[in-house]
Amino acid sequence: MTAATEGLSLNQATTRHWATAEVIRGCAEAGIGGIGLWRDAVEQLGTARLARLVRAAGLTVTSLCRGGFFTAADAPGRAAALADNRRAIEQAAEVGAPVLALVCGGLPPGGRDLPVARQQVTDGIAALVPQAESCGVRLAIEPLHPMFCADRSVVSSVAQAAALAAPFPPAQVGIMVDSYHVWWDPAVAESIVAAGPRIAGYQVSDWVSPLTGDVLMARGHIGDGCIDFAALGGALRAAGYQGWTEVEIFNERVWATPGPETLRTVVERYRRYLAGPAPG
Amino acid sequence: MTAATEGLSLNQATTRHWATAEVIRGCAEAGIGGIGLWRDAVEQLGTARLARLVRAAGLTVTSLCRGGFFTAADAPGRAAALADNRRAIEQAAEVGAPVLALVCGGLPPGGRDLPVARQQVTDGIAALVPQAESCGVRLAIEPLHPMFCADRSVVSSVAQAAALAAPFPPAQVGIMVDSYHVWWDPAVAESIVAAGPRIAGYQVSDWVSPLTGDVLMARGHIGDGCIDFAALGGALRAAGYQGWTEVEIFNERVWATPGPETLRTVVERYRRYLAGPAPG
Questions:
Q1: Is residue B280 one of the residues assigned to a domain?
Q2: Residue B122 falls within a domain, yes or no?
Q3: Does the pLDDT at position A123 exceed 90?
Q4: Residues facing residue A219 across a β-bridge
């Protein structure tokens, strides 16, 4: 890791078609010091082996994606979600991920009651906190863009995530800020500053418009869209956030690009748009 | 108009491939008492002729779509937007539309500065208020879903619209609440109630997930999606809103359906999901 890439982490979803071992090697070669992991990779390699690979490459695991999806039409569904989250917390601990990102879940199929769904999220998080604490894993509520409210997350803003997290200590329940999901919010900067020590992670991709096709896959490299990363970064610094910046891009075109080329772009854009002011 | 359709208006965008004269006749035959017009129809028929047609059919014009798009990269662009809005206000007055819906505009091409864009919206509305007042037309700021923040509206919530409207009397600057754009907002009910007399109109379509393809065209008939119209309607009643409910559905499949069939569905769904309690 060089000074110019200090603080940069690659979420492996950005290089989805690269095997995890290749992602790890690629990051090390590109001077990227952090890696965000996904559970399918964890389950494929096993936590012990994956942790060894990461350590041997000199990388730091910055987060595990993902837990959550607490909402369900019935009690067995919610119990199954909790069981899956408990496994996710264990996996995070085993691979050394300090943070488990929570995508909280949308409306259950056929459901229309947002307050009930939001209560299910509240209850789910509360049920997980003791285990997360004993495992040394921080839960990070990730507000998702409101276009995912129906099917992925009834939590749509940093302020809403902060209200959900409020009953718990910041070290147990934090907030994952993802630029793509929150940039539009007129209150995002003040919400981030107000959240202060709750900010548990910062994921980035850019918003490229017009939005067409699969809205899950529309994210762009930093600088290809319209998000003001200087403004978001300023809010995060004002909140006291000094953690990693994790580049997470869902985009078929990026996925079709050879991994090393993607990593070069990630590093170049990080230097240009995201890295803090050069030291002295 | 029968009691069961009292308060129902059809926004002509719902039957886009129907000529305006046919929409007017269709509404009258279906017992739909209100019609929301679009400017292309107004310009095609001329305001005087259109006003006569509507009046002869016994309909009420409930709104004109639309003004706005205040944001632009340079001063000539913003001046052109204002000129277009002035024409829209005249057209609204000439066709008897009490309300001009404002879709405020997104970031200018290449732009990333949301506060600047929002200031342009503020300035644009302020510039129009005197003319709107003298024409007897109410400007209605329409918050759009945050997925349109980049390219259509930097105004994304009822609360944000209310803050924009605050400097002006409610009779001059109100808020157009569109279910599709605001349903996800955890604060939508309290924002509507707080907006009270600012609520200038209520447009409805349903959110059908998953969201795919052209996100502009994904809206569904009331009841086909996940929006809790009872909750939204309750908030509007609590706000004191007693105006029209205007069904506005952008959907290629709906557009491909014969107009009379669409109107039957609109009426049936209105009775089932939207009409207030039957008079005792």
A1: no
A2: yes
A3: yes
A4: A207
Q: Which residues does chain A have within 8 Å of residue B150's beta carbon, measured at their own beta carbons?
A: 184, 207, 209-211, 225-226
The question of ipTM being above 0.90 is answered as yes
Domain extent at residue B209: 3-274
Record the tokens describing residue B167, joined without a space: 């400097």
What gap in Å lies between CA B162 and CA B157, rounded to an integer? 9
β-pairing, A245-247 with A199-204?
parallel
- The closest CB to that of B147, out of A107, A113, A145, belongs to A145
Is B279 inside any structural domain?
no
Residues in chain B with CB shorter than 8 Å from the CB of A144 are none
What's the residue count for chain A?
280
Q: Residue B22 in 3-state DSSP? A: helix
Number of Cβ pairs closer than 8 Å across A and B?
84
**Count of helices and strands (H, E) across chain B:** 11, 10
CA distance A156 to chain B (A): 8
Nearest to B150 among A118, A147, A209 (CB): A209
DSSP assignment of A101-140, as one string? EEE-B-PPTT---HHHHHHHHHHHHHHHHHHHHHHT-EEE
Does residue A22 carry a pLDDT above 70? yes
pLDDT for res B4: 82
CB-closest option in B150, B185, B226 to A150:
B226
Angle between helix B47-56 and helix B20-30 axes, rounded to 10 deg: 20
Q: Could you read off the pLDDT of A194-231 as tens digits, one per residue?
A: 999 999 999 999 999 888 767 777 899 999 999 999 99
Say which CATH number the domain at B244 has: 3.20.20.150
The residue with greater pLDDT, A211 or B252, is B252
Mark out chain A residues that contact chain B at CB-CB < 8 A.
106-107, 111-114, 118, 145-147, 149-151, 156-157, 160, 183-186, 207, 209-215, 225-228, 231
- Could you give the 3-state DSSP secondary structure of residue A175? strand
Tell me the nearest-neighbour CA distance from A237 into chain B, angstroms: 19
Q: What is the pTM of this model?
A: 0.96
Domain membership of residue B54 (yes or no) is yes
Query: Could you tell me the pLDDT band of residue B1, with boundaries at 50, 70 and 90?
Result: low
Which residues lie closer than 8 Å to B116 by C-beta, 6 or more apart? none
Dist. CA B64–CA B176, nearest whole Å? 11
Tens digits of per-residue pLDDT, A48-70? 999 999 999 999 999 999 999 99
H or E element in which residue B111 lies? none
Give the best residue of A114, A154, A204 to mutate against chain B (max B CB count within 10 A): A114
**Quick check: helix, strand or coil at residue A8?**
strand
Contact A210 B106 (CB under 8 A): no
- Nearest residue, CB atoms, A215 vs list B149, B157, B215: B215
| Interface probe with B: pick from A164, A209, A217, most Cβ of B within 10 Å | A209
Number of domains in chain A: 1
